[in-house]
Automatic annotation (TrEMBL):
EC number(s) from the headed UniProt entry: 2.1.1.33
Species the sequence originates in: Eubacterium album
HAMAP family in alphabetical order: tRNA_methyltr_TrmB
Catalysis: reaction(s): guanosine(46) in tRNA + S-adenosyl-L-methionine = N(7)-methylguanosine(46) in tRNA + S-adenosyl-L-homocysteine
Record family assignment: Belongs to the class I-like SAM-binding methyltransferase superfamily. TrmB family.
Residues that hold S-adenosyl-L-methionine according to the record: 43, 68, 95, 117
Source taxonomy: Bacteria, Bacillati, Bacillota, Clostridia, Eubacteriales
GO molecular-function terms, A-Z: tRNA (guanine(46)-N7)-methyltransferase activity
Name under which the protein is recorded: tRNA (guanine-N(7)-)-methyltransferase
Name of the top EC class for this enzyme: transferase
Biological role: Catalyzes the formation of N(7)-methylguanine at position 46 (m7G46) in tRNA.
Pfam families noted in UniProt: Methyltransf_4
């Protein structure tokens, strides 16, 4: 992703009512943040937030948390929220490596990973959000029947993920290498910013769903 430094974005994010600063202080208490017992779903690496914002608008009885490490893109999602004022969506600016410090065992219902950074060099494989190292982290925050959904146009990253996820002790429930032409898996699909861009270029979109 080409990232521009957006002056003042860090400060604006910290001051927004939609951002949770010091998220680790809420570990085990996320229901209190939302003020209800509704399920909590997260998107890791949400970018400008089109996907998770649309989901939150469509499903007011589900709570959503968007996680993004760069202020310069997160600020765009926050600006959108200032207009929409949804009560079931919050944002966290952090690196997902800290996810087990932020959520308790079984606190999360579903994890979305969309067009995650490929980290093409072998020595960076552990940084990929679908590496077995990350799936072990997801083990510690997801409900027993929780699922991970992953979409990407990067075929190498998808192949890597199909190998790594079972190595972490998870099952691939379903997958496709051509989401937009798979009637069943594409039903209700919400396109992300990257998905729109890459499918317009003619790239195939891969999707998998994993559980334990
Ligand atoms: N999900 C969006 C989409 O599909 O349009 C954005 C995709 S973009 C290629 C990947 C995003 O994930 C970037 O905004 C990047 O900063 C974020 N990201 C990558 N690794 C992350 C991590 N470890 N923790 C939090 N965010 C991360």
């Amino acid at each position: 992703m080409r990232l521009r430094n957006v002056p003042g974005s860090r400060e604006a994010i910290a001051e927004s009512e939609y951002t949770i600063n010091e998220p680790e202080l809420n570990k085990g208490k996320w229901k209190e943040i939302f003020g209800n017992d509704n399920p909590i779903r997260i998107e890791i690496g949400m970018g400008k937030g089109k996907f998770i914002t649309t989901l939150a608008q469509q499903n007011p009885d589900i709570n959503y948390i968007g996680i993004e490490k760069f202020s310069s893109v997160l600020i765009r999602a926050i600006e959108k929220m200032e207009e929409l004022e949804l009560t079931n969506l919050k944002f966290i600016r952090m690196d997902a490596e800290k996810i087990e410090d932020t959520f308790n065992k079984e606190e999360i219902d579903k994890i979305y990973l969309n067009f995650s950074d490929p980290w093409p060099k072998d020595r960076h494989a552990k940084r990929r959000l679908t590496s077995k190292e990350f799936f072990k982290r997801y083990d510690n925050i997801l409900k027993k029947d929780g699922v991970v959904e992953f979409k990407t146009d990067n075929n190498d990253l998808f192949d890597f993920s199909l190998e790594q996820i079972p190595e972490a002790g998870w099952n691939i429930v379903e997958y496709t290498r051509d989401l937009h032409n798979n009637e069943k898996m594409n039903e209700g699909n919400i396109m992300t910013e990257y998905e729109e861009r890459f499918s317009k270029m003619g790239n195939n979109i891969n999707k998998l769903i994993a559980n334990r």
